Amino acid sequence: MLFVHGTKDWQVQVDQTKAMTDKLDRLKKPYTEVLITGGNHDLERKSDRVALLTAVEAFLAQNLGSGAAPGH
User: Fold this and answer.
1) Would you call 13 helix, strand, or coil by DSSP?
2) Strand ranges inside 1-72, DSSP E
């Protein structure tokens, strides 16, 4: 699982992500957590979106591999 959360998200509190990652820790399940300092729910700042996309790219490369899908 990949969690990306802005610390200034007032619609979905960062505590909800923390509760989920705490449970995953107790179950010894892997996950990646990225907290974007000052990021809001929409990740409006360019730097926030770059952080989001960079995290997604790294997560997918780690979990799916970096090669293209067969036939593409």
Assistant:
1) coil
2) 2-6, 32-36
